[in-house]
Design brief:
The complex is a heterodimer of chains A (302) and B (476).
Chain A (H helix, E strand, L loop, with lengths): L1 H13 L9 E5 L2 H11 L3 E5 L14 H8 L3 E4 L9 H8 L11 E3 L32 H18 L4 H25 L8 E3 L5 H7 L3 E4 L10 H13 L4 E5 L5 H10 L3 E4 L12 H17 L1
Parallel strand pairs in A: 1-2, 1-3, 3-4, 5-6, 5-7, 7-8
Helix pairs in contact in A: 2-5, 3-4, 5-6, 6-10, 8-9
Chain B lengths: L1 H66 L2 H21 L13 E13 L23 E3 L3 E8 L4 E10 L2 E11 L6 E9 L20 H7 L4 E10 L6 E11 L16 E12 L3 E13 L16 E5 L2 E13 L9 E20 L6 E21 L2 E17 L17 E12 L2 E11 L6 E13 L7
Antiparallel strand pairs in B: 1-2, 1-3, 1-18, 3-4, 4-5, 5-6, 6-7, 7-8, 8-9, 9-10, 10-12, 11-13, 12-13, 13-14, 14-15, 15-16, 16-17, 17-18
The chains are: A alpha/beta (302), B alpha+beta (476).
Chain lengths: 302, 476
């Protein structure tokens, strides 16, 4: 028992260097929301990003480090629509932090503020790991980013009333720059319209819909199920009837299946950043879109 | 002669009647068609007007772009509100039935096949568990345990969860507790029946185990999952860079190896304290370290000591307590922190038990002795599980128990039956499992069990674990 008490004392000692500073602590589930929080929150917020662009946000585990970060968070910003269902409920539940519970101002689920695509009409697990509320990978439609930015500014002003004007001003500035950029991307991406693609998962649906690029197939036979050789053979057959011009995956996925199919059907395969940080150039939301569109254009031209 | 005519007449009538009806209702139908046409036209006009407005707004925005960025923002705002309207109209309305508030429900199906050299009903762990306590499955096909878990937020203050296990017609409440969600400051209070937060393995439900069975030291000292009816308080330190959790529990133990919860006395019969530290090492690795202690009143009065499995001598233990402490360590690795393709997990736990009380011992025909008695024993296990390919994992585990030392108080004289057996129980386990989705798993496990003196028991488990319903979230 004595040894045990000593260990407790050691734990208490280690607990001393508290990290809390004056700034609002934002816990962003995914890098795109971390980047958005920096755009809107500026110097008044400190941002912790729980996942990287190389991690599948659906398969994260409730690691102790995440619970420790959630403990001190004033606001969590997540994609929602069950994308983080395997870990965020545990992280929030174990954190003992009553500010970030579901329905609280400190809990922002982005999917609640945008129109979701691919809402399933049939919910059955035989169809793979479908998300009942719709496709949660909403970061690839620039309109969605703006909708979430607006809600984020509102929440920040709510939690930190002293900074309300600051957040509103930053939102206006961001909305202006984002609106211009969106128009520019739409112009630049004009040649991509109608270019048929095969994707890996459904994580780029919003991008392809926005750019008018028809998706004719997915490497995954069912959402969340890794590519199988039987399914890839089907895609080879399908190419004869419904041909794709590009295979587009993200840098988060293994390129194995895309590369194999590319060799079989003689169609180029490229990888886009899944989110901010997915490629060296994708440093923030603007450069993430730049990077994606440039890579698509480069592949389309060649 | 008559009948065919009648039938023919009837058929003719039947054929003519609807036609007549059609002829009659035609003007009405025309009316409706006209109304629909009118409606459609008015909609078209309205849609055209809206499109025109939208076009104008877009044109205006485009013009303004060259002039000033101010208008851009307005266009953005307009787009936003348009999108918001779209979101509102496309958002599915929540169902207005009482069942909309149904809690999360999941069902775990488990079962399999067991093959072993030795009869599981006669197996024991020398010095620790008697043959009725080791609880190996029956040989051959066996359904095992079916689990139902129900959980939901109760209101703005509480969360509730219950896990029922159904096995051979017996339903047990493995866990049934409520937990606070609104205290804040890092505090959470849990009360009811729950698995203790001590150690690593103890609070993990059967379906989430990495091997078919619990480690020997876990089984011998704590049962598969040590649960209590009582209260747990835990606190997370407000340190973002290091996970620090402190907690304690008090209540009544539920099951073996502690006395069952039917005993009737005021206050706490068991108390625990635990501490966990954890964090990440770079992007790919994470760990958690733990230490814990537990003290329990000895509920077994006037019974042989089940926890020591004395055999061949009449003995009873009264009073005293069962004191445990342990250390646990978990390390996980995944390339870039993404466990999808490959990941690795290492777990080790070490536990010590000190069981004491007043022992009445009758060594054969000699005189009965009574005196203070303490058995100090310990054990540990280490296991590694590696996912080498999506869906496929392999694992290896080693178990060991140490028979320890018995301290005899005054009144007890050293005798052959009063010394620990000269034997160290050991076991090796290897498993491979295949999980085609997050909801299904098949496992094959080989085990060489040398936990009973003089025996080697080679065991094979084939197991399935299915999870239906709510997508569960698992602890680290």
């Amino acid at each position: 028992m004595k040894t045990f008490l000593n260990l407790l004392a050691l734990g208490a000692l280690l607990a001393c260097p508290a990290a809390a500073s004056g700034a609002l602590n934002i816990f962003a589930c995914e890098p795109e929301w971390g980047a958005l929080a920096r755009e809107i929150g500026g110097d008044r917020v400190g941002v912790y990003v729980a996942t990287t662009a190389l991690q599948d946000p659906h398969k994260i585990q409730a690691r102790p480090s995440l619970i420790a970060q959630a403990r001190v968070a004033d606001l969590v910003v997540c994609s929602g629509a069950e994308l983080e269902v395997g870990w965020m409920p545990v992280v929030i539940g174990q954190s003992g932090n009553n500010k970030i519970g579901i329905g609280k101002p400190g809990n922002l689920e982005a999917a609640n503020y945008v129109p979701l695509k691919e809402v399933p009409t049939l919910l059955d697990r035989s169809l793979g790991d479908v998300h009942p509320r719709g496709n949660p990978h909403i970061q690839w439609d620039p309109h969605n980013i703006l909708l979430v930015a607006e809600e984020l500014a509102r929440r920040l002003g709510n939690i930190d009333p002293g900074g309300k004007n600051y957040y509103d001003a930053r939102l206006t500035s961001f909305a202006q720059r984002w609106g211009q950029a969106t128009q520019r991307w739409a112009q630049e991406a004009a040649p991509l319209k109608g270019v048929a693609v095969i994707e890996h998962h459904k994580e780029l649906t919003y991008l392809f819909d926005w750019l008018g690029m028809p998706v004719v197939g997915a490497l995954e036979p069912k959402p969340g199920v890794e590519p199988t050789s039987a399914h890839l053979s089907e895609l080879v057959e399908q190419q004869k009837i419904n041909p794709a011009q590009l295979i587009v995956i993200t840098t988060q996925k293994s390129p194995e299946a895309a590369s194999w199919l590319s060799g079989q059907i003689k169609v180029k395969h490229i990888a886009l950043p899944a989110t901010v940080g997915g490629t060296p150039g994708a440093k923030d939301l603007f450069s993430m879109y730049d990077e994606a569109i440039n890579r698509l254009l480069a592949a389309e031209k060649s | 002669m008559f009948k065919p005519h009648l039938i023919a007449g009837a058929i003719a009538f039947a054929l003519v009647l609807p036609a007549a009806a059609r002829a009659q209702t035609n003007p009405q139908l025309e009316d409706i068609r006209k109304q629909i046409q009118d409606l459609k036209e008015s909609y078209d006009a309205r849609i055209q007007a809206l499109e025109k407005q939208l076009k104008e707004a877009e044109d205006a925005a485009a013009k303004a772009q060259s002039a000033a960025t101010q208008a851009q923002s307005a266009a953005g705002q307009a787009k936003q509100s348009a999108e918001a309207a779209a979101a509102q109209s496309s958002a599915s309305k929540p169902p207005a039935s009482p069942s909309a508030f149904n809690p999360g429900l999941s069902l775990i199906l488990m079962g399999g096949y067991y093959n072993s050299d030795q009869d599981p009903r006669t197996r024991s762990v020398t010095g620790f568990l008697g043959s009725d306590q080791y609880a190996l499955p029956n040989r051959g096909f066996d359904l095992g345990e079916t689990e139902i878990q129900i959980s939901a937020n109760i209101d703005h203050l509480f969360y509730g969860q219950a896990t029922f296990s159904i096995e051979d017609g017996v339903i047990t409440a493995e866990e049934a507790f409520f937990q606070t969600t609104a205290i804040g400051h890092g505090f959470t209070v849990k009360a009811g029946r729950f698995f203790s937060g001590i150690g690593y393995f103890n609070s993990v439900h059967n379906h989430a185990w990495d091997f078919q069975d619990a480690a020997l030291v876990q089984k011998a000292f704590l049962g598969d999952n040590f649960g209590l009816d009582g209260v747990q308080v835990s606190w997370i330190a407000p340190v973002s860079s290091l996970y620090v959790e402190l907690g304690g529990e008090g209540g009544k133990p539920v099951d073996f190896p502690f006395a069952d919860s039917s005993f009737n006395s005021n206050g706490f019969q068991v108390g625990t304290a635990f501490a966990h530290l954890g964090g990440d090492i770079g992007a790919s690795s994470s760990y958690r370290l733990g230490a814990w202690g537990l003290t329990s009143e000895n509920g077994i009065a006037g019974q042989p000591i089940p926890a020591l499995n004395f055999t061949g001598f009449s003995n009873t233990l009264s009073g005293g307590s069962d004191n445990l402490w342990g250390l646990d360590f978990v390390y996980k690795w995944a390339p870039n922190g993404d466990p999808s393709y490959q990941n690795f997990k290492f777990v080790t736990e070490w536990m010590h038990r000190s069981l004491n009380g007043s022992l009445t011992f009758a060594p054969g025909t000699a005189q009965t002795q009574t005196g203070g008695f303490t058995a100090n024993q310990w054990g540990w296990y280490a296991q590694a599980v590696y996912q080498f390919h999506p869906y496929w994992r392999v694992g290896l585990r080693y178990d060991q128990l140490n028979e320890g030392v018995y301290d005899l108080g005054s009144g007890l004289v050293a005798a052959p039956g009063l010394a620990p057996p000269d034997f160290t129980p050991k076991r090796w386990s290897a498993m491979i499992d295949w999980s085609p989705s997050e909801f299904s798993r098949f496992r094959l496990q080989f085990q060489q069990d040398k936990s009973q003196q003089g025996l080697t028991d080679n065991q094979v488990f084939l197991q399935y674990i299915f999870s239906l319903g709510t997508h569960g979230a698992h602890k680290f």
